[in-house]
């Protein structure tokens, strides 16, 4: 069985995540091919798309949210994702049990006597009638669940049924609270009642493979997938990594050579290219792994996390995690200035590499 070293896995991931070469101009197509972008911070996906799409214009993404071809919904790992409407319908039902389970795992002590099915029945008509915040619906149903804390009830209310966040939330220039309505009310159809877990597995491998079963579970948060993977094995190719783990992959996905050039790329907070694996060493050193769950924004150099970046007003600062060569400094500084201009639209301001 072929062994893929870490550098080969890095290049495979970058190619499938559209981070070796910018593509486009079709941001919705990128969202589709990646199976969505993590999006709990409303504007962060725009940076992720800017790094993947040539001459990226945020306006079509905002328009797609209004036109309902892209949506923001809680999905994999019980986190908000920007996905196509088709993926929302295909996979939201598959993720619903996990979303409910994780909500109760975090909030059980604050939800005494609250049954998820009863809460779902109570909140569904309010969200279907009109887009509302979780806090608003929690107040409307609080009388039925007197022992629950308001914050926990609001969190549970937006978790027990399939909902989408409606614009202007998540648009490039939009502001305001997260107002939600049911998937059925927004898209005219309920999520697939018999979702296809195999389709989700194949989608993951096309966007993140080659990968181990543990990586798949870390990405989606779902249990019960080993049996699905076993059924798919005859149509998958297999490799091993340097740790000896078996890696699975689809036949038609790219595997660029390990020496393929990887230009600097700026990632938003919680980008799936980092979070999409149990073994994240193909992208980030173990010493910095903890940063991946803090909301840090990363800079990739030679395909690996080499720095974080922050903004303040119209300024952007890169914070190296290792020394840069002169050539790396120049390349990162140029990319940083381009990103700063995109994010701020301002001629003033600076992009710099800080301590």
3D structure, described in words:
It is built from 14 helices and 12 strands. With about 350 residues, it is of the alpha+beta class. Among the domains are: about 15-185, no CATH class; about 280-355, no CATH class. The strands form 4 sheets. The protein has a 5-stranded mixed sheet with strand order 8-9-10-11-12, covered by helices on one side. A 3-stranded antiparallel sheet has the order 1-3-2, with helices on both faces. Helix 6 crosses helix 7 and helix 7 crosses helix 8 (about 150-155). The longest helix is centred in the N-terminal third of the chain and has 23 residues, at about 85-105. The protein is globular. The chain starts with 5 loop residues before the first helix and ends with a strand. The mean pLDDT is about 95.
